[in-house]
């Protein structure tokens, strides 16, 4: 099952950031050369009772007036309803219910999704009774916490993860390749999806997503089944640039989670922008297969070397996904769209690849022979044994003498050696180190 998404909605100042910071303490470490992604506090990976989920913060813009707050709250709630599996509605237990709270409650009441009302700033027992008035909102369970004091957080997490069981049983996997078409606004995602769905007569159905209010499209192409995860832009457009970008990132996170392969759509007329880097970085970090799709190629003036030069520039700008194939398409004319599909299929296979332990160890021993690990902290790294622990993405466990002296550049070297032998094109690969005691 894909990782559930939990969205926090709430007025400014109710304490969303405070809670976020409390929970985000144990963020999964980020590959250091992935740009952009880490610095924004838009989402965090949280684990509780062995259950992992992605927490997203739908707020974040400083509003000046009461009606701006209201319109923003509406949008936050919309986003949460569209993208989340569980919605946490945070309110201020010191201030009590406000008109904006009622407004949001009215919206959230219409969703089928579980909503948990979290009353914050209940810093001590004498304030506990403040929570009862929030039952008047008429949505879901009400639970009190103090984000600042760290009170009630465990109970809140218990409640949140208890909702996950509701959709754990949903059978999403029918052997189809799950594809997220992601990219910044206006890159041509909908056009591409329409072409894919429109051209092929073999669509099974447009079914509303089983766990989210999204529309997924099943398409059968040349005997292969694809599920294109709905990535339509947030329906109502905002004029605030930061807001547009924030929501497109949230949107991407939601679809990436469910995908095997991400088609990162770049607008050829604009080249790689910072937001493209960010979105590609999300796919990389999530361990998904990636195909870089340069769209609107019909609009580019071409000379003999245009495509190569363009590729080189992309390789520079998106160096952290150097493993991803690039394809130049036009969603408008259909040029190379079928090539793109072939690549997606190919990358999906690579992403799911299992390498035999014997072959893996041969390649690693050979790599070590050709180039010894550097001495770190006066110690020499020894790699005893390696095995593939999981697929999607391929993840290798290396048994070593000391886990704290594995140097980033040596890991890079091993990664390259493995790729040279086994391909693994289009997929990130991961290493886990285990210390072997009997040195
Ligand atoms: N007493 C008390 N104060 C809190 C608690 N949690 C947060 N605060 C305070 O409430 C204020 C707002 O907290 P933030 O976490 O910034 O609120 P926010 O909802 O993220 O606000 P925006 O970023 O504007 O959306 C800060 O002064 C916090 O110190 C709490 O549990 N108890
Ligand atoms: N010339 C040309 N125009 C394209 C192509 N693909 C999309 N467009 C145009 O680019 C604009 C944006 O396309 P959309 O498909 O709406 O882009 P999107 O990425 O879904 O945008 P959001 O919904 O905002 O995220 C539209 O005017 C399309 O007609 C293409 O391959 N060539």
Automatic annotation (TrEMBL):
Pfam families: KH_dom-like, MMR_HSR1
A single GO BP: ribosome biogenesis
Top-level division of the source organism's lineage: Bacteria
Residues reported to bind GTP 2: 183-190, 230-234, 295-298
Chain ranges of the EngA-type G domain: 4-168, 177-352
Positions contributing to GTP 1 binding: 10-17, 57-61, 120-123
Keyword Cell division found: no
CDD domains recorded: EngA1, EngA2
Keyword terms, alphabetized: GTP-binding, Nucleotide-binding, Repeat, Ribosome biogenesis
Molecular functions (GO terms): GTP binding; ribosome binding
InterPro entries: G_ENGA, GTP-bd, GTPase_Der, KH_dom-like, KH_dom-like_a/b, P-loop_NTPase, Small_GTP-bd
Record's function text: GTPase that plays an essential role in the late steps of ribosome biogenesis.
Subunit structure comment from the entry: Associates with the 50S ribosomal subunit.
Stated family: Belongs to the TRAFAC class TrmE-Era-EngA-EngB-Septin-like GTPase superfamily. EngA (Der) GTPase family.
Protein name (database record): GTPase Der
Record organism: Fonticella tunisiensis
């Amino acid at each position: 099952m894909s990782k559930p998404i939990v969205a926090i909605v709430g007025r400014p100042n109710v304490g969303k950031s405070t809670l976020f910071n409390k929970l985000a303490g144990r963020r999964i470490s980020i590959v250091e050369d992935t740009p952009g992604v880490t610095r924004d506090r838009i989402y965090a990976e949280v684990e509780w009772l062995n259950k992992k989920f992605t927490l997203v913060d739908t707020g974040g813009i400083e509003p000046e007036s009461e009606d701006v707050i209201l319109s923003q709250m509406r949008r936050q709630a919309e986003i949460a309803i569209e993208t989340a599996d569980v919605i946490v509605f945070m309110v201020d237990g010191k201030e009590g219910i406000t008109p904006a709270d009622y407004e949001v409650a009215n919206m959230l009441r219409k969703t089928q999704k579980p909503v948990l009302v979290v009353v914050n700033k209940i810093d001590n027992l004498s304030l506990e009774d403040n929570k009862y008035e929030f039952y008047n909102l008429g949505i879901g369970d009400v639970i009190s916490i103090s984000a600042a004091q760290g009170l009630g957080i465990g109970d809140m997490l218990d409640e949140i993860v208890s909702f996950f069981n509701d959709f754990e049983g949903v059978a999403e996997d029918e052997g189809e390749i799950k594809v997220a078409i992601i990219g910044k606004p206006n890159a041509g995602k909908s056009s591409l999806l329409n072409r894919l769905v429109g051209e092929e007569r073999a669509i099974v159905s447009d079914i509303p997503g089983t766990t989210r209010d999204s529309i997924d499209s099943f398409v059968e192409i040349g005997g292969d089944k694809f599920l294109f995860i709905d990535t339509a832009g947030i329906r109502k457009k905002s004029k605030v640039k930061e807001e547009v970008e924030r929501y497109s990132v949230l949107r991407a996170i939601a679809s990436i989670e469910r995908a095997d392969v991400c088609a990162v759509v770049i607008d050829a007329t604009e080249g790689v922008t910072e937001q493209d880097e960010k979105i590609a970085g999300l796919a990389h970090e999530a361990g998904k297969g990636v195909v870089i799709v340069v769209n609107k190629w019909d609009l580019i003036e071409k000379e003999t070397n245009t495509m190569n030069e363009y590729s080189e520039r992309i390789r520079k700008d998106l160096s952290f996904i150097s493993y991803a194939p690039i394809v130049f398409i036009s969603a408008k004319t259909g040029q190379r769209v079928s090539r793109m599909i072939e690549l997606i299929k190919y990358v999906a296979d690579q992403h799911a690849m299992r390498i035999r332990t014997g072959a893996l160890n041969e390649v690693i021993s050979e790599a070590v022979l050709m180039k010894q690990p550097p001495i770190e902290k006066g110690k020499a790294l020894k790699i005893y044994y390696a095995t593939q622990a999981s697929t999607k993405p391929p993840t290798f466990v290396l048994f070593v003498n000391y886990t704290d002296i594995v140097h980033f550049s040596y890991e890079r070297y091993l990664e390259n050696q493995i790729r040279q032998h086994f391909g693994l094109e289009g997929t990130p690969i991961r290493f886990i180190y285990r210390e072997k005691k009997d040195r």
